[in-house]
């Protein structure tokens, strides 16, 4: 089952987080504040962002990505999938039961 790593501007993070959980695309989303430094259109940028770690299922992954793309304000949002190979069974069961 995947965890999806998303970065978002602070003003968009709450809506993305709550929508993913409310629509049962993610069982849980952790939020971590971060400063990102990156190159965009030939210039170096430094922005305050929020890292979102969305716990989802294989079946819901594509719908979660589509929903993030609808809600995210960036032209090229960071959306990365991490597949876990070893997860506590009780957590895996809870996650599967929480995502439709």
Automatic annotation (TrEMBL):
Q: What InterPro entries does the annotation carry?
A: Ion_tolerance_CutA, N-reg_PII-like_a/b, N-reg_PII/ATP_PRibTrfase_C
| Species, as recorded | Natrinema pellirubrum (strain DSM 15624 / CIP 106293 / JCM 10476 / NCIMB 786 / 157)
Mention one GO molecular function: copper ion binding
Q: Which family does it belong to?
A: Belongs to the CutA family.
Tell me which Gene3D superfamilies the record gives. 3.30.70.120
Q: Which PANTHER family match?
A: DIVALENT CATION TOLERANCE CUTA-RELATED, FI09726P
- Protein name in UniProt: CutA1 divalent ion tolerance protein
Name its GO BP terms in alphabetical order. Answer: response to metal ion
Question: Signal sequence: where?
Answer: none
Q: Which UniProt keyword terms apply here?
A: Cytoplasm
């Amino acid at each position: 089952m995947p965890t999806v790593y998303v970065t978002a501007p602070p003003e968009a993070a709450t809506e993305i987080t709550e929508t993913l959980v409310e629509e049962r695309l993610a069982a849980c989303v952790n939020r971590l504040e971060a400063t990102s430094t990156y190159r965009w259109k030939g210039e170096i940028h430094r922005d305050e962002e929020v890292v979102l770690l969305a716990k989802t299922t294989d079946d819901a992954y594509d719908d979660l990505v589509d929903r993030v793309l609808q809600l995210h304000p960036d032209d090229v949002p960071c959306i990365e999938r991490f597949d876990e190979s070893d997860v506590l069974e009780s957590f895996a069961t809870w996650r599967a039961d929480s995502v439709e």
